[in-house]
């Protein structure tokens, strides 16, 4: 077993396992009584198991497995409406999933337990290994073993040079051409021998990899604690302020301080979308003006995959569409609603769905208008449809509802959905639902004397997504460090080479042996390079009987 390369480490050596005497069964003394562990022993055993590399890898895999529900099921912090729909659609299964925290996986107790155990396990693995590696890196290579014939990779040369010259040539080949960056660490622990070792960076890369994993865990935890993300739909000519209350949706970590938001404002001046003749998108661009505290407005551009950095966060262009600007007057002629209403695109040709809620009527019932915006409408007996996303022939197709919109119940509502529980759809004399077809600039009468609707214009809107994660740089650095450490650990060979030079009747016999940790296909080539440098000194002349030496 040429592991540490000394005969005394073999169990077959004198004083080893087979030379210890005894029959192994306790003899006349009876069976061996094992000591009881006790609480301290069990605690020590548990700690050693937790800090073993095997358990660390198991916990890493387990963390990936327990994160799967967070990708499959809707999560309450990101999409509470989707969670509510899932609960309503799965009344038997969903309550149990909610009980086990599967709708908020990354804040659940069991996910946090796996996360913390993995963190402790990695720390427990790394700390002792760092000390061992530092001591190994500072120690000398082991002395040459007595018998080289035990090694699978070995060689021998007889040269016409002194032993000192042969060892000097071998040392030069082992150290390399750059003395400050030696290939091998070379020492002479005995007269006539060299001990060389390389590959200390292998364990260094391994430790860097595990430290990077710890850094990655810490970075992700810090990011989840202090991150925030907000979404806002902004219509051309309008804007929003960077405050929690001004976003349509806002999600933040438990350590987030609302006072840390930089109080800037952003105005959407113009949104430009370019499509080809086949309705394929070519480019999207949002021209905005940013007003920072104490400064004048600064023009900026937001494009796909080119976010705007402002206030310590990045503003991404997430979507776009049309927001028809309408004015609704009630039966008394009073303006009950006026302004743009975003309609959400449903397909590639921007067939968009939206809801116009008119709660402030002076008389009668509240009004709800539900329907579609067709940017380039084509009307046929089969119905109306859009054929291109550009507004070449825009048309609003709306159905009318009357009653109580339910805005005063205290229950939040989706602005893109109409709650019809307390409303009824307006029909004509034949009982068929009334459908309004409205073109830009047109004013139409609402049925049943509910008032009028005027389509004033068709501005665009941009869906903006603001994100701030203070740990992104640390996550990137940790990921790069982990990749580099793993690469160094995988591709740096750990090798030992020994050289012994002895004088035999005026000839110098040089013996070589090499050993690697694990399988190393490059080890024979490494040894051949050192052997060739020694043979370059010149072969010794052959004896009269055709041989060079009995050791050859």
From TrEMBL:
The keyword Transmembrane helix applies. One of its GO terms (biological process) is cytochrome complex assembly. InterPro entries: Cyt_c_bgen_Ccs1/CcsB/ResB (IPR023494), ResB-like_domain (IPR007816). It is found in: Membrane. Residues 1-30 are annotated as: Disordered. It comes from the Bacteria. GO terms for cellular component: membrane. The chain crosses the membrane at residues 55-73, 105-130, 207-226, 471-491. It is a multi-pass membrane protein. Residues 16-29 have a biased composition (Gly residues). The keyword Disulfide bond does not apply. This is Cytochrome c biogenesis protein ResB. It comes from Actinotalea fermentans.
